[in-house]
Amino acid sequence: MNFENALQLLQRVYTGRVAGKRQICYDKKRVFKRIDGLCFAGIEGVGGSIMQKNYVQEILHIIHSGMPRAEMAEKLLDYHEKDLADALEALTPEERHSLYPILGEDEVAEVFSYLDDTEPYLKELPSNEAAKVISNMDSDDAVDALDDLDDSDKNEIVNRLDKDSVDDVKMLLSYDDEEIGSRMTTNYICIQNNMTIRQAMSELVKQAGENDNISMLYVVDEKEHFYGAIELKDLIIARAGDALEGLIVRSYPYVTDREKISDCIDRIVDYAEHSLPVLNEEGKLVGIITSSDVVELVGDEMSDDYAKLGGLTGEEDLKESIFESVKKRLPWLVALLFLGMLVSSVVGAFESVVAVLPIVICFQSMVLDMAGNVGTQSLAVTIRVLVDENLTTSKKLHLLFKEMRVGLVNGALLAVMALGFLGVYIHFFKAYAWGQAFLLSGCVGISLIVAMVISSLVGTVIPMLFHKIHIDPAVASGPLITTINDLVAVVVYYGLAMVVLIDLFHLA
């Protein structure tokens, strides 16, 4: 079945003229590339349940079967590239060398795009063959693969790329990692706004051989400025006499290539489209962001936030040098060092309390730890809520008071437990009278309540403040919040011990 016939069949499906069926199944990477592009699939089951097949084992069995190359190629091309990539990792270098010619350059490029780390596989290939693989990959996947290589290997392969590929790769490499342009792809269908329906269909056929992101067609004007977008479905069911202008969505959402990923990721996710166009400052279409790119972006943002919550300036990986890891960790450690010195100096200010009543130091870590834990919990909740850019002031205040109430209730429950258990512990193991023991445990309990309420406040207000001044709230990391809450807890605990236990009850 050729492409024109496939389009005719699609038109019939969408207009309800194929045996009353309106659903088709297709793989975006195969629909317009292969004869079997249209696939009506059934699901095998036993006893009404779906059987999960182990495709990787099936692929390995085919590879090791010794069947003729042509037959092997035909069978292997029925499997998804992700499963082929998983199978590739289970093969020896010699087996992979034998497999690549069977699959062909295009398929190998698709398979490599699903590898978590392409470096060892690219290094198995001669530079010219590695360059051919990279040239056949989508531009964003090619850049990701090149990023896995060291500079010398990267430059050698880039110099061997074909002209179209090298232009796309160099364009993507020109963007900073934080800019959305670095994550876009040039794999899309682009047509002129002055075309007829028939011309647009013909252009789709022409470009589909190289570009498989076809669910949305992007339209430009005579000056190559972005004009709008057309859904593939709308083009398929359109009549030859219809005006193309009537199919174009003019107010289609877009992002700009120099936007920070952190600034536009929420907007991209909210639109929930298969792809969004990326425009330069002149309003020209330079690429698109696909749904798979969005998944990666969200994952990267979550990883980055997780790193920041751990007190890092960026995510680390196994291949980083010691110097790079130190550079990411040291800034926060220096800041926390000075904050820790402040906490220590505050503790030193209460030396008289420790000298008169040494037992209070036994419970210092418990109060500090609980305050830090509560603050970190409030921080995590607040960061998650702040994802909503439309969060009103009243909702923020509601969140603030809610977190403080949660801290109060949890603090009160823990205070009751501390009053009972610590009172018994101090009496029997520290040889204090019952009254003195419960005075001490009561001081610890009240300190827990006050420290946990204030920690909830701090853990909520600080990320809100950072978000207000357009700083990533994740920067208000766990270590930062914990250190601030340590300072609060020290003042509350030793302050209460001085005022209540020593000054008021003269406990010594």
Helical proportion, percent range: 55-70%
Mean of residue pLDDT values: 84
Quaternary form: single chain
Structural class: mainly alpha
Q: Segments where pLDDT lies below 50 for 5+ residues? A: 13-44
**What is the terminal-to-terminal distance?**
94 Å
CATH domain topology of the largest domain: Tetracycline Repressor, domain 2
From the alpha-carbon coordinates, what is the Rg to the nearest angstrom?
31 Å
Helix count equals 21
Shape: elongated
List keywords for this structure.
single chain; 508 residues; mainly alpha; CBS-domain; Tetracycline Repressor, domain 2; 3 domains; 8 strands; 6% strand; elongated
Could you characterize what this model shows?
This protein is mostly helical and 508 residues long. It folds into three domains: 1-52, no CATH class; 189-309, CBS-domain, CATH 3.10.580; 322-504, Tetracycline Repressor, domain 2, CATH 1.10.357.20. 59% of the residues lie in helices and 6% in strands. The chain is built from 21 helices and eight strands. It has helices at 3-14, 55-63, 69-76, 81-88, 93-103, 105-112, 119-123, 127-135, 139-147, 151-158, 163-173, 197-208, 232-237, 261-271, 291-309, 322-349, 351-356, 364-385, 393-429, 434-468, 478-504, and strands at residues 45-46, 49-50, 189-192, 216-220, 226-231, 255-256, 275-279, 285-290. The strands form three sheets. Strands 3-4-5 form a three-stranded mixed β-sheet. Strands 6-7-8 form a three-stranded mixed β-sheet. It has a two-stranded antiparallel sheet with strand order 1-2. Helix 14 (261-271) packs across helix 15 (291-309), helix 19 runs antiparallel to helix 20 (434-468) and helix 20 (434-468) runs antiparallel to helix 21. It is elongated, with a radius of gyration of 31 Å. The model is unreliable at 13-44 (pLDDT under 50).
